Amino acid sequence: IKYFNEALMRDSNFVKSKMNLASAYINKLDKESVNKGNDLIQALWAVKKTPDILQVLLWGIYKKEKSSDKVLEFINKEKENVKFLISERDSLLNLLAGFYLESGKVDEAIKYNEKAIALSPEEPAFITMKARTLMLKAQQDYLIPSEFDIIPKFNDYKNVKEAEVFFNKALDIAKKQKLN
Fold first, then answer.
1. CA–CA separation, 79 vs 113, rounded Å?
2. Residue 14 contacts by C-beta under 8 Å, 6 or more apart in sequence?
3. pLDDT < 50: residue spans in the chain
4. CA spacing 20 to 30 A to 10: which of 18, 38, 122, 126?
5. What are the C-alpha distances in Å from 8 to residues 12, 39, 49, 95?
6. Which helix (H) or strand (E) holds 18?
């Protein structure tokens, strides 16, 4: 935080420093810091709309409100400002997939995650998200409810098997990236 404050003192127009300072506060996790970071990034969003600022802003809303639904409300309210910013940024698409998944909107999560994977097919985090969405889709659509089973049973194991393939693919890619 000290580094970012020094950069801002040298040039108050240094947007990247402002954004990084907000992110540092948001990620400190205590309520006061999260609120301060969220205020900083909200102010920055008011004057400049970029994918990087949007990503920090969405994370700030999530950390402050502790609700993915609040993030999705913001996206809906700002849809004209964010539509293009989101469409070309793989990390934003995947972040949105996570928010939709947490909100129980699995089909929307799948849609955004597939767009992220289309832009970056070798990103382990995106492939892992794909596996998570498939597992939740299986639980949502194919779970056979039973109070007696410890291990869940499904009508169809296709999504579960596909999820396993994606988890393994993500692991393989991560191992290769670590070696490089």
1. 18
2. 7, 8
3. none
4. 38
5. 5, 16, 19, 28
6. helix 15-26
